[in-house]
Amino acid sequence: MQLMPRHLHTRLFLAVTLAMVAGTLGLSFWTATSQYDQLYAARLQQVSLLTSTLAEGSAHAYVIEDYASLEHYLRHSVVLPGLRRVIATDTQGTVLSALERMPGADAVRLASVTSRVNVPATAEQRLEHSGDTLLAWQPIMAGGLLGWLQVTYQLDDIVELQSRVWRYGIVLGLAELIGGLGLFMLLLRRPIRSINSLAAFARELPHQKGRTIPVDQSVLELAELGEALNHASTELARIEYELLELNQTLQNRVEEEVAKSREKDVLLLQQARYQTLGELLVNISHHWRQPLNAIGASIQQQAWQIANGELLPEQAVPKAEEVMVILQQLSHSLEGFRQLCRPAASSVTFSPSAAVAIAVAAVSEGYHLQGVEIRQQLMAERPIYGPQQELVQVLLNLLSNARDALFANQVADGLIVVQVSLPEPDRVVITVSDNGGGIPERVQATLFDPYVTTKFRSQGVGLGLFVVRQLVEQRFCGTVEACNSEDGARLTLTIPAAPGGSTP
After folding, report:
1. At a CB cut-off of 8 Å and minimum separation 6, what does 473 contact?
2. 3-state secondary structure string across 258-316
3. What single string gives the DSSP state of each residue in 412-455?
4. Which residues of 387-402 are buried (b: 16+ CB within 10 A; e: fewer)?
5. Residue 457 has what pLDDT?
6. What is the DSSP letter of 94?
7. Rounded percentage of the chain residues whose pLDDT exceeds 70
8. Cβ–Cβ under 8 Å, residues 62 and 140
9. Where is pLDDT greater, at 86 or 5?
10. Out of 18-22, 114-118, 388-392, 483-487, which region has the weakest mean confidence (pLDDT)?
């Protein structure tokens, strides 16, 4: 529920009204209370002196026990201002004379009181305030205590004065309130009108961008607000114009950026491919070195035997056939390397085990010489569809990363396991795991980002796993996941099986 008015000027009027009313009432209360306290203090002093005077005047009548003279004296004293009743008693409280003045007149009459009243216990003056009356007890002394005077004073004049102060204060406060509100409304009328016009301009701003309104300079804050709205209007018009231009050229920019992104991906893939080919060249050099040494040793031995007559010409034919077998093996390995160096072929349906076999055959001998064993676990599988050469490159990258991890952690018996499985009929899973200690925690979240590597810069630039993810996702519509196993890292490729294929 809305307790306060929603308009700002109404709230200001209400706040000023409440503040002025509270101030006026507070001032009236303070003035009335202050004047009452001052008049009451003066009245106490007056009552004390007047009561003492009455007691002194009554002492002679008490001494001679002339109570008629005492009543006569008191009758003339009751007409004093503010005095309402006088009761004279002896020391025991027996009433000797009781007189009172009639309300609203100066006539004096006998007061209707009991024949005995309770008097104070000590012979000293005592004042008792009750409501609008003041009761004074005054001992009558003449060598000793002769009796008591009980004098009642009326405080109507003080209460009336206090009421008048209250009334005058309220009237003055209302006059100030009316005048202040009128002045307040006069001063705020123009700013309120300006605020309303600015609010209407702000509501229409989305439909009338670029338009400005006159700014009221009478109030600094309103002037700043108006200038800000005019600035916002012109800025909205400018931004809308720029957005229109941007929308007109956005499609061309998007096409340009997509083309640049594709070119960048091609360059990254080529860079990773060249890195893989370099590693294959190293493996081929290891693969060729021993056969070439064997061929050279065999030729030298045959030439020496022929020169010394130990080998007849007809016996050289089997030796030549052995050399040709070795040369054919080298030619076969060279043909495999040439196949890997060819540009990516079109997508075909092939067996994942065949791609694993090609990748392992390309690096197994070199890895073996480096003390790393590659173990294949080719389980039930189905054919997949895609460029086989790209999957071979993916496997070569994973094998290279696993070998580097084994070398970095100085694992004596390095082992890389390549497993092909079929957990579901429509998905083929290829897993490459090692015992190289696992993936560092600091790079797990960004492992497949470009240029992220745990190697020294001289050993790699961090494109291997980025290229793996790009090829698997774009060429095979699959996914790549990396995790740590008990002994090392595990990279898992999940690739959809080719539709209509059969399990080998």
Report:
1. 479, 480
2. HHHHHHHHHHHHHHHHHHHHHHHHHHHHHHHHHHHHHHHHHHHHHHHHHHCCCCCHHHH
3. SSEEEEEEEEEEETTEEEEEEEE-S----GGGSTTTTSTT--SS
4. bbbbbbbbbbbbbbbb
5. 41
6. B
7. 76
8. yes
9. 86
10. 18-22
Digit-coded pLDDT (tens) for 230-279? 888 888 888 888 888 888 787 777 777 777 766 666 565 665 555 555 55
Token digits of residue 265: 């991906």
**CA distances (Å), origin 113, targets 140, 365, 369, 410:** 20, 138, 137, 124
Strand 372-378, strand 414-424: pairing:
parallel
Tens digits of residue pLDDT in 57-83: 888 888 888 888 888 888 888 877 778
* Domain 346-504, CATH: 3.30.565.10
Q: What 8-state DSSP symbol labels residue 346?
A: -
Burial of 189 (C-beta count, 10 Å sphere; 0-12/13-18/19+): exposed
Q: What is the pLDDT of residue 325?
A: 60
Per the prediction, the chain carries an average pLDDT of 76
Cα 24 → chain centroid: 46
Q: Where are the domains of the chain?
A: 8-167, 237-342, 346-504
**CA 11/CA 229 separation, integer angstroms:** 25
Nearby residues of 504 by Cβ (< 8 Å), 6 or more positions away: 351, 353, 380, 381, 382, 383
Q: Are 354 and 394 in contact (CB under 8 A)?
A: no
CATH number of 8-167: 3.30.450.20
Helix (H, G, I), strand (E, B) or coil at 138: strand
* Contact of 306 with 264, CB cutoff 8 Å: no
Give the mean model confidence (pLDDT) for residues 441-452: 71
Per-residue pLDDT, averaged over 469-487, amounts to: 87
Residue 97: CB partners within 8 Å, gap ≥ 6? 67, 70, 71, 74, 86, 87, 88
Nearest-angstrom CA–CA distance, 377 and 386: 22
What is the rounded CA–CA span in Å between residue 216 and residue 396? 76
